[in-house]
Write a structure and sequence with these properties.
about 250 residues; alpha/beta; TIM Barrel; eight-stranded parallel barrel; 10 helices; globular
Length: about 250
Amino acid sequence: MGELFRGAGVALLTLFHNDGSIDPGASGELARELVERGMRAVLVAGTTGEAATLTNAERSALIGAIRGAVPAGVPVIAGTGAPSIRQAAGLTGEAIAAGADAVLAWAPPGGLDTPGYFKAVAGAARGRPVLAYHFPRVYPPGIPVSALAGLPVAGQKDSSGEPERLLDELAHYPGATYVGSSAVLAMAGPMGATGALLALANVEPERCVAAFAGDAAAQREITDRHLAASRGGVPALKHMLAEDLGRPIPARVG
């Protein structure tokens, strides 16, 4: 199995109508625009996509719309992490059926039976790549670097933003490493990380691409928006996007 993608990708915001219902068409348009601005992959229904608020049918509708909106060579990755093996496997099967090219799953709470969990997710993915998601602040305790090579995954997304973890990954994990924090792009790219899947890329795609390529000035230029998004989460990102587009961008989380 080859690399899923190389370079910077976006952890896509989910766009909603004013009444709170999903807007797959607008979400697809945003994904297409971001790909045109340099994104190499699109993550749908991840943490940034307010996955916890989405029904299974809404997830499938979004995946299908975005798969139809972006070029065939750009992978659409679906977030399918869940509190139980049964739920994660079910979401994974539905995501693949809806058109996802790969899935991203966080480990079960407490790290209980992480190998069994990812074995079930990989089985439900029916040969499509699985990425393990390390984000201990949101999904504790995360996945130790030493455990990654023993999991049936093609790689991992590390959203911890911890430089020492990144060094450990790049030195000792043979699979693909995608960073999820826009704080470490200018370190990650030049040191050999496979790519990035970034929430900030919804509003700063070009600078994220440049920073991952080693542009220290671009890394500095995204500082204020990175810090605002890190502190304020999805509502802060949607506020930035609303300012850029000149129209309200509703959120379900607040």
